[in-house]
């Protein structure tokens, strides 16, 4: 099963990705985790990412695509995978399409966790207080939400047009959301 999960900050993507991946016996692949692992292992790509981040820059689509391609080539991805945090842009969607097409594959489903924005803002503010994230203010959180909606809407629309987008209510207890997700994928 080849999946992608979308959702705004605080929607529970990481939690649900781990549960979905465990259920289907596939790896949950987070681009953030890939970046950190490549940096830690001092791979060629990791060294590139480290220098980009150290200078305050953004990792380019080209580098991100290369890191994801390398990860998807590993043995544990042969039976499938769940992507979290990639693709984030339409050019990244095109690169993923090309990569999968070269293997005779496509994404089977794109899950989008839909949430009540005000409830998620409150959830993130509580998390910020508990974890001591003083710079996670309501304004900062709402700006991250706005960026997510602005940048992700074109991706959602693209996957909806392809007939692979499934929206799942991401509100409620974690177990309830997991049940809805798994029922949707069944």
Mind explaining what this structure looks like?
With about 190 residues, the chain is of the alpha/beta class. Helices cover about 60% and strands about 10% of the residues. It is built from eight helices and five strands. It has helices at about 15-25, 30-40, 45-55, 60-70, 90-100, 115-130, 140-160, 175-185, and strands at about 1-5, 30, 80-85, 110-115, 165-170. Strands 2-3-1-4-5 form a five-stranded parallel sheet, with helices on both faces.
Q: What is the average of the pLDDT values?
A: 90
Provide the helix percentage: 55-70%
* SSE sequence, one letter per element: EHEHHHEHEHHEH
Strand proportion: 5-15%
| Helix run count | 8
- Class by SSE composition: alpha/beta
Biggest sheet record? 5 strands, parallel
Structural Rg: 17 Å
Contiguous uncertain segments of 5+ residues: none
End-to-end separation in angstroms reads: 11 Å
| Overall number of strands | 5
From the spread of the alpha carbons, the general shape counts as globular
Strand order of the largest sheet: 2-3-1-4-5
